[in-house]
Description:
twelve-stranded antiparallel sheet, 2 helices, DUF6593 domain-containing protein, DUF6593
Amino acid sequence: MPNTTYTLFQFSADPWNARFEDAEKLQAFKVEEDPNLIMRITREASWAQRNPQVMGPSNSYFYFGPSRVQGYLVYGNSPPQSMRNARRQKRENSTSRYFTAQNGKEFKWRVTPQRLECIDSKGGTVALWETSQLRDEFHARLTVKQSALAIITELVTTLTLNRIALSLNW
């Protein structure tokens, strides 16, 4: 497995509305909420075309219930799944949250307010999100291993979902 990593910089601390750019300032993802409590995460085609390992859906959608309670999410045209299922907890009091990617593989996010680490079933880190230093112009940095680019939309989606869960105390 190549050790090449890709870094996306998150602009905006707001998990509901943000953008991710690469080192060349090319927008990779946009996160935006509309007034009907539907949130869309869009992977930018121009960024994906520059990275041939990028696969999977180009969009995901969050459908929240009243007062932003957990609802469901949809990847592209796939069937809906519950938000709860996309951030399963295996042990009580654990801060880790699990999700199953569309390729059938299970991943775990270790969740803290300033750092989220995504780990594959073999225990290897495939993505790391960390808040930035005050001097940085961006809010956070998402570093993704080349091997995880195939599920990049799912990583950004579940990262965003976990950040929203932290902000809403789900």
